[in-house]
Amino acid sequence: MIKINSITKRYPTITALDNISLNVNKQEFFGLLGPNGAGKTTLMNLLVGYLNPDQGDIHIAGEKVTQDGLHTRKNIGLVPQSLALYDDLSAQDNLDIFGSFYHIEKNLLKERIKEKLESVQLYERRKDKVKTFSGGMKRRLNLVASMLHDPPILLCDEPTVGIDPQSRNAIFDYLLMLNEQGKTIVYTTHYMEEAERLCKRIAIIDFGKIIAEGTIDELIEKLPYDETILITKNQVTKGKIDLLKSFGSVVDEDDHFQLKPNAGFQLSQFFSSLEKNTISYKFVELHKPTLESYFLHLTGRRLRD
Length: 305
Ligand SMILES: Nc1ncnc2c1ncn2[C@@H]1O[C@H](COP(=O)(O)OP(=O)(O)OP(=O)(O)O)[C@@H](O)[C@H]1O
Ligand SMILES: [Mg+2]
Prior knowledge:
Alpha-Beta Plaits; 11 helices; binds adenosine-5'-triphosphate; Rossmann fold; 4-stranded antiparallel β-sheet; alpha/beta; binds magnesium ion; 33% helix
């Protein structure tokens, strides 16, 4: 559905995208994960033809994206990172204007506006000016404003920035429903839990380069370290480090042991051994690698601008 082929985009002082290639399949929920300044918005703007690449090309539904490509605009809805709404107009009037960009037949547009406002729970507030809206309401309106022409592809550039969990969940549920109905979605974020919750496949981008790509499980498998087991001690556990050592390498850390299991470690065997030797414990936690740990492992912890 989306084919990005060796794209490079330079601004005067920086190469924002450096030879990026990516494919997004039809009906996929694809995540583009990256820290500030990684190049996510630049890529979104290239996908809709707002920007021209310096090298490479992009095809959407078989057609090359160009800056005057009407075909692309019909196929794509871009939910921009910065709110693109008229503050002094009502929600309804905003959507009327966005709809007029696409020359949608009047009655159909009216119907769509009603349906979209209802789907993000703003229909009751349709006559209120946007400047009276909360951050979450603005984000929800910003989201539907980009899809009045009912495009098969939706690009969402950090659509949940700065909003509360209720609005965020409403947006998640709505996007998941759209995806189930057949829409292809590309979703940028720096929130790992969002990518994990929403996306089937993700690419991690940093300094304009794709540094990892795959399903979440595939990415987690690439982690350079295994799971860890934390055994929080009680009086009995304290002196029993030798038994734990038969299961892997153990580090004694004040109130708990940290166990890095040997290859072939089985949790059931571990627990039955503790039971057989009547070794009690306060509790045991299994720490599996997460996407967050992978993301930080790949991109490092230094701050970005
Ligand atoms: N119009 C521009 N002119 C010059 N440099 C730009 C321009 N737009 C973006 N950049 C630079 O290009 C790089 C990528 O920016 P981009 O906005 O694509 O990143 P991003 O991943 O969307 O970041 P964020 O998570 O903060 O939104 C950054 O270093 C940014 O400063
Ligand atoms: Mg951005």
